[in-house]
Amino acid sequence: IEENRQEYGINKISKKGADNVGKRLVRSFFNLFNIILIVLSVISLIIDVILPLHNSVKGKANYATMIIILTMVLLSSIIHFVQEQKSASSANKLIEIIETTCLVERNGILKEIPMDEIVVGDIVHLAA
Fold first, then answer.
1. Are 44 and 62 in contact (CB under 8 A)?
2. Which of 9, 18, 30, 66 lies most in the core, judged by the most C-beta atoms within 10 Å?
C-alpha cells in the first residue's frame, strides 16, 4: 500500500474552477433580472432625460425612474450576493464535517476507508 502511494501519489480529488468571492460578486450583478432592469433604466434615460433635453419644446428631465430602477439593481445584487455568500459558507462547513468513504477489497478483506486512502490495486465495490 505504501509503495503504491509513493509511486502513484495520493488519491486526492482537486476542484477545477472553484467558486470564489469575485465570481459570486459578478454573478450577483449580472443575472437575468438585473440585465432586464438595466435595459429598463437605459430606456428610462432615453425617454425621461435625453429626449426632453433635446426636444424643440424644452422639457424638464426626470431622473426619478432611472434612479429608482438602478437602486433596485443595486439592492437586489447586494441581497443576492449576501445570500450566496451564506450558502457557500454553509456548504463549505458541511464539506468539512462530512467524510466521503468507499468500500474496497484489499488482500481479500472488505474495508470501508476514506476516499483519499484508496491506492492502485484496491478493488472498489460500487453500490447505488
1. no
2. 66
